[in-house]
Amino acid sequence: MLGSSLVEVYKEIGMTLSEPDLRAKMEADMRAIAEGSKDCKDVLRQQLESMRELFVTAVSKKKEIEGFFEQRF
Questions:
Q1: Number of domains in the chain
Q2: How many C-beta atoms lie closer than 10 Å to residue 70's C-beta?
């Protein structure tokens, strides 16, 4: 129930954490590193920046997230 609630709240506040394209991008980057067409440090930097942006969004929407879970649980 918690997992499905997280997916619902992510969608409700416009976050892409549960979207398959996020994982697909990371997998493509890992493939590119293995093939030698991307540098692992560049990929790490890009992934961290992407996660940082999502974290900032989550923090800025803290009240909405709390309200969602207060209604659910």
A1: 1
A2: 8
